């Protein structure tokens, strides 16, 4: 028996749930270290331009496709054009890959929150603590399972009683925590061993001031790729999530207004995350602290909390609680996409599909955990970086599939279906789509070209051509 299709109760429920998906580890974990790596304010400037152009186009496209078809990615593209049903399968593959490692990262965050809740957390600041934890046999799996079980429980409760209700409670608290911590970090002051006084406001300048030193065309393309990869990960576009959430949106909702609100939520949190993390790391660790890359929050920040003295533990608890909220809302959206597609494809009830997806997520996440010990290997990726199992999954989903899916989607909407199909859905209730002209131009001429370039850069073909 086919279940009645779920829906969000209204605009606020949709916006908070979609923002919850968008506001995740991508904003708070990836954004600050990419910003520090790619020239501070230069990366920020590139990212903002991308959000206002590509982000707006891709987000509007996904949500409109979902609401118009009332189907998930697997079936939505087939309804648009039967010859393009393969694009639905490609899109579905992205959350399949992301789900393998997102709960692992969620488990890391859960572990650090637990450490600071039950102790002063001094051990978390010791060199080698993070490496020792992720390379151990059992602990990463246990904390991953706790995080995954909570994710599955929320998805099991459904759209309105689970995802929407959870988002309405968590999102306001998440944003409040981010604002409080960001303001606190800007007030920090510390005297370095050489006698230099470093302040949070100086760290803010490091964050916001564009660094054009050594900028070349190739380097700019690398920054552009990082920013676009961050955009995909952050806004949850080109992975079927926003198509799924869009399919739950009622027809009387103003899509243009809703997508604008999601953009504001997502970008605002990303900017605040940078204001929260980069000044704090600068104050206590200087510029060297920025070089820890993806491990910024697990290696550098515990040292910052340790240096804060009596304020360290409360700040750490608030930070990792906020990180936990962000990771959970995003992981819920990834799992919901898999469950919803499974329900639609196999006509099975939510309860059974939650069980199937939960088992898949657990088994693959265990393999990712083992990728740091028993299954450890190093592989040079086409983009020049070297990684192991988690990095491979992240590269395939974010740097390879997402630009490729966006390229194909822009061709389908821009040249096969026509931009007016999307514009008509946005204006369904008579609301004026003020950026319709920009949307039409971007989806037909700009997005395909830029996505092709980014795809060639991310796969290493650009270097071969050069």
Automatic annotation (TrEMBL):
NCBIfam families: Na_transp
Transmembrane segments: 40-65, 86-109, 129-156, 168-189, 227-248, 269-286, 315-341, 353-373, 400-424, 445-465
PROSITE patterns: NA_NEUROTRAN_SYMP_3
InterPro entries named in the record: Na/ntran_symport, SNS_sf, YocR/YhdH-like
Pfam families, alphabetized: SNF (PF00209)
Keywords: Membrane, Transmembrane, Transmembrane helix, Transport
Protein name (Swiss-Prot/TrEMBL): Sodium:neurotransmitter symporter family protein
Record GO cellular component, one term: membrane
Membrane topology listed for this record: Multi-pass membrane protein
Superkingdom: Bacteria
Keyword Nucleotide-binding applies: no
SUPFAM superfamilies recorded: SNF-like
Places the protein is found: Membrane
